[in-house]
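Hi R.,

Here are the chain sequences for the assembly we discussed:
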Amino acid sequence: MRDLMTHMPDQLCVGHLAIDAQHEILYALYNEVTSSLACQETNFDLRDIFAGLTAYISMHFRFEEDLMLESRYPGREAQLKEHHQLEESVRALHGRFVQAGDAAAEMGVARETEVFLKEWLGHHINELDRELARYLHEHGHVE
Amino acid sequence: MDCRVIKDGGTVYVMLPNVFSFDFRDEFRAAITGNPTAVKYEVDFQKVERIDSAALGMLLMLREGARDQSSVVLTNVGPNIYKMLQLVNFQKLFKIQTIA
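And here is the predicted structure of the full complex:
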């Protein structure tokens, strides 16, 4: 069973304890989507994974946005815009999943979600969140 | 050490092992699936000394699968584990009862 779990690659650690810990959870939920696609019978309900993912992404973004506000982060507007777009994309995928109608359509949306998450986790963390973490350290906003 | 489960009327008590990790995924999944929708969950952290991100993800899925999100309570959470739960902002998502 352990081989089904891929740990978040070290390259995705940004050096901020709380942000990294929250990204680890998002990565774990990505793993759940992946393993559900491999074998649905032995996995958590995809509906619960989707709902958990949507809820945790929102919570995580609000956490980062509070940090940006408190630290007067100059890249806040760009980050907020991307958060909004990402949340919309995840919400749209979730909506399509809920309304899929049959198992095959659900799996199709789940596959799209898997690809979307992998790309997003790499891009968003490596580019935007790494910059935020660097700023927080430089300005003494350590966890 | 196993993940122990007691189903008592409308409440499912899940006693977590000292290391709550991906290795307990199947046991945890079995504990929370197939229960009536009206059930409440008390997840007992008394023995937990370590927890990984996969296990935290499992708690999120439990929260989503439950009747309503307030019907999941994390109990007997020790100070170190509570710090971990705060780090990942779980205090905003779960009702958490710490060890007095």
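Chain B touches chain A through 23 residues (CB under 8 Å). The two ends of chain B are 25 Å apart (CA to CA).

Let me know if anything looks off.

Best,
T.
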